Amino acid sequence: MRTPPLLADFIHSRACKPICAKSLTLPRRNDTARGCGETWGDRRESNPSSSYTRKEKGAAWHTEAAWSETREGPGRVQIRKQALENGSRAVAGFSLAHWEGVKISVKYKVIYRHRKEYPISEMCRFFEVSRSGYYGYVSRMDTLAKDLPLAEKIRECQAESRNTYGYRRVCIWLERKGIHHNPKTILRVMNKYNLLSVIRRKRYVRYGEGLHKYPNLLNRDFTAECPNQKWVTDISYISTGQGTLYLSIIRDLYDNSIVIYKTATNQNVNLVLNTIKAAKKKEKVTAELQLHSDQGAQYASEAYFELTQRYGITPSMSRRGNPYDNALAENFFSILKTECIYRTKINSFAEARALIDDYIFFYNHQRIQSKTKLTPLELRRQFAA
Fold first, then answer.
1. Do residue 122 and residue 185 come from a single domain?
2. Is residue 216 one of the residues assigned to a domain?
3. If we measure between CA atoms, which residue out of 363, 373, 377 comes closest to residue 161?
């Protein structure tokens, strides 16, 4: 059996209008046209140019018979006079038999599409579906559609944040826009529309030995009462097509901002010394400043010891094999690589440096922190004010 077209095809160009008792009853073959006083044959003979053809009249009669088969009884099939005059190429075959075996969801879609043209109850009766089932289908459609505006806002947020925000930061971003939702709702929508942030990959770090060792003054207390009170520093590497580029950073524990950073193609003590010198020029350093590092050879060197003594910086050092003692420095490298480095194939040192410059600017000025709901430099400016 040929699969019938949708009701939109059967009712071509709205040829058939709402079927209700108040509309005009379809006249029989020998009946006179409503208000015209003539039979259909007389109408055709008196007006040969009429677009209402014998074939179309037959379609109309077939329609009446079809509706009679659907427990509506004679006289319940209603079609407007204008529809008969214009003709309908699609009402032929408009019978219940054509819809046998069609999925009920298809019937619901047809009813929903023509809900403004036909009474719901009449269409449900014709298609032999329950009204409660149809309205349940409509309510499920509304549930699916109601998440779309929120999903678009989340997509806008992820585009602005370079697809790096988790649901907590997305919630803060939306609150800034005056949009308030439960964080669990945001997480559900992000899962539903594949708007989750990039998943981080774990990395492992080796630790070496050196000449100087310092006490662990930080002792995993990663809080500070003011800027330039506690800094953490570390070195990480970035693989490129030209080789390995090394990145040294200093991070302030007050606002988690990156105070300074330096890159080099060699991992030696000069990279660390240049980082500290640049930080000293940029920020006001006092004797209260603690600079925490791991037990890398550069931080245990004699040159590092002499420089910190000259600047009045108090060194602090993690315990051996304890990366969590310097967790905030490791955390930034994880964020940088997950949200930026691992998402791009880097071919040269220049390309790597450009990515680092761009991302650290974004991190300091635009990336919202879940804990403070501010960017690092926004928090720093609040303290200065």
1. no
2. no
3. 363
For the chain, the distance separating the N- and C-terminal CA atoms, rounded to the nearest angstrom, is: 79
d(C-alpha 305, C-alpha 299), whole Å? 8
Listed in order, strand segments (DSSP E) in 273-347 are 290-293, 314-317
Q: What pLDDT, in 10s, does the model give residues 174-230?
A: 999 999 999 999 998 999 888 988 766 555 545 444 478 899 999 999 999 999 999
DSSP 79-116: --HHHHHH--SSSTT-SGGGGTT--HHHHHHHHHHTTT
* Amino acid, res. 264: A
Q: Are 154 and 132 within one domain?
A: no
Task: At 15, list the tokens.
Answer: 């040829």
Model confidence, pTM: 0.56
Q: How many C-beta atoms lie closer than 10 Å to residue 236's C-beta?
A: 20
Q: Regarding beta strands 258-264 and 290-293, do their DSSP bridges make them parallel or antiparallel, or are they unpaired?
A: unpaired
- Is residue 220 included in any domain, yes or no? no
User: Same domain, yes or no, for 15 and 138?
Assistant: yes
The domain of 167 spans 147-192
Q: Closest Cα to residue 367, out of 185, 225, 161?
A: 161
